[in-house]
Amino acid sequence: MNTELLGIATIFLATVALAIPLGHYLAAMYRGDRTPTDFLAPLERGLFRVAGINPAKEMSWQQHLLALLTINLVWFFWAMLVLCTQGSLPLNPDGNASMSPDLAFNTAISFLVNCNLQHYSGESGLTYLSQIVVIMFLQFVTAATGLAAAVVVFNALQNRSTEKLGNFYNYFVKSITRLLLPLCVVIGVLLAFNGSPMTLHGKQQLVTLQGDSVAVSRGPVAALVAIKELGTNGGGFFGANSAHPLENPNYFTNAVENVALALIPMPMVFALGFYLKRPRLAYMIFGVMTIGFLALLAPTVYYELHGNPAISSIGISQSLGALEGKEMRFGAAASAYWSITNTVISCGSVNSMHDSFMPLSGMSQLLGMMTNAFYGGCGVGLLNFFAYLIIAVFIAGLMVGRTPEFLGKKIEAREMKIAVIVTLLHPLLILGGTALAAHTYAGNPTEYAGWLANPGFHGFSELLYEFTSSSANNGSGFEGLGDNTPFWNISTGVVLLLSRFLPIIGPVAIAGLLASKKYIPESAGTLRADTATFGVMVLTVIIIVAALAFFPALALGPLAEHFSLY
Amino acid sequence: MLVLCCLIYPALVWSAAQIVPGHGQGVQLTHNGRVVGFANVGQKFDRPEYFNSRPSAVNYAADGSGGSNKGPSNPEYLATVHTRVEAFLSQNPTIKRADVPAELVSASGSGLDPHLSPAGAYAQIERVARLRNLPIAQVRALVAAQVEEPLIVFFGPAKVNVLRLNLALDSLQGR
């Protein structure tokens, strides 16, 4: 086996090996059991005292959502304020300007919803102050928001009838102090030791060896990149994200960042099992997610390692695979692996340019975001998966002719309606948005010529990718798209808001409704949710709902391009 | 929370960075007492007597990174690749068309890729040796010394840092 394949296999196994113990830790930590991080308790008590919050007060699911939405609104105004005035605030050694209102709107929302779609380039679009107090701050708190919402669902699925689902602020603060911060310090230090800058100095002017003058951008990179990956945020310090040699200096940091971005979504699955004392359920979910992940990974690695047939026909052998948009220190395999982990997990950072991948690799990336539940984002991936689970339970229940129930709670019309709305919202936003953009473009191709960097099928894929990435709260892009225009800033901003908060509100509401229902003990006639058979059922539902809804659009973009190339 | 995430945490990482080479500023390389670049940030080498670096969509502007974002079937892009192949062959007439290194005709993701594959460097040996009046074997040995093996031998691709290679080349001739 060659070193490139060995490298990605090792990255995957390392992630799983870390995920299981971390899952145990998360379950214990959220349950409030003794953990090695108890020494941080005084810090948390101090935070709660300053904020005047009683962390022991139990909240209903409605109160949880109210708290969640209120603090999000506060953060939005904070971000808008800083971004619109950054030019005249301190920590701006490169003299970068303030953002236009529509760009600030898009940026504030995109980071607020943990998407990190970037319609600017970090080197020139932001100051160090905005990078730290807007970008990095939101990267911490939005990850913690998703986690807290997931823990509320955990609480609701326990074997009892209750209205009380724990305290939102308690889960939120603990997510930061006992999970995100300690891991970020470790990752940040590893990055700094490998050559990522961590400085407040501005650009360095220098003359290169052959005599050209260049200015090299720097900044507090290491700290930001750590939370960018760990919090499944993906918004990089520089325009080129983790392809930039200062954000991701070598193969080792590439592996560290790649493990880091799965280091919360994957353990959260195990944490669900350990929290509910139903480990088999966690293994079933993990199995389904992993099968989906590998099914997308395999073709991508294959096509990237085999290179671009159009370039082969020029006469080049491409023994190292397709290299357009990729970095030599990672190679084709690690770039392909990264692109799939970053699209199935709604992180969206890139270490190579997705726009230049082979058509079917691009389709796998799109499918990763279209399903959006194979591991998924911090907390929210599990919430999306939960909506699919509910639908699978319902269909399976109908097939065997029993009242559908999940973990001892009856699934009824109201829960089903919410689950279906949540799952159908995603295709609606993606396809509706793409249709609108394609219609606008086709109406006047000369006026909008700046939108697309590539003609034909690939241009359509660029439009589709942008809305898929927005709706999946992913944030990566086919970056050939000229997306810093009012149309794109506002349309994707709206998509981002809807697709972040409805998929949080929906599953939390379902869970809240289920929690208050009577618990029915399991019997011989119960549909067991932790079996392989049920796993196949869930996978089928995901394929039918997510993948088939998008098939016509995929046929027009990546599939058509594939058949024109091969 | 703002204080914790935005002040204490960056300060921790910053202080750790102070003890590593470059003190958190990035690792700089000097030549004859002059800073000529960052070890990790690629720079443009297009003069024929140097080992050339990869094409860059942003012309190696280290304050505005980015890739070409050209799709694999874009005819304009394929024409560019074709031109690059012809240019490489005319500069390096001893290389066969099939052996033209793919990275030297395709742009990197960041536009600042500091590396080539070993094959990418070896393909340029004869040209560099000829223009610098050096024996080919000596230049080949120089490249071999600059090849960075995969991580712990097993993981990832082998590569050559173009700036370090060219620095070694200049030092060899006392430039």
TrEMBL record, chain A:
GO cellular component: a single term: plasma membrane
Entry keywords, A to Z: Cell membrane, Ion transport, Membrane, Potassium, Potassium transport, Transmembrane, Transmembrane helix, Transport
Superkingdom in the source lineage: Bacteria
Residues spanning the membrane: 6-27, 65-89, 128-154, 175-193, 259-276, 283-303, 373-398, 418-442, 494-515, 536-560
Membrane-topology descriptor: Multi-pass membrane protein
InterPro entries: KdpA (IPR004623)
Location(s), subcellular: Cell membrane
Major subcellular location class: membrane
Pfam families the record matches: KdpA
Any one GO MF annotation of this record: P-type potassium transmembrane transporter activity
Keyword Membrane: yes
Keyword Transport: yes
Subunit-structure text: The system is composed of three essential subunits: KdpA, KdpB and KdpC.
Role this protein plays: Part of the high-affinity ATP-driven potassium transport (or Kdp) system, which catalyzes the hydrolysis of ATP coupled with the electrogenic transport of potassium into the cytoplasm. This subunit binds the extracellular potassium ions and delivers the ions to the membrane domain of KdpB through an intramembrane tunnel.
NCBIfam families, per the entry: kdpA
Family: Belongs to the KdpA family.
Protein known as: Potassium-transporting ATPase potassium-binding subunit
Originating gene: kdpA
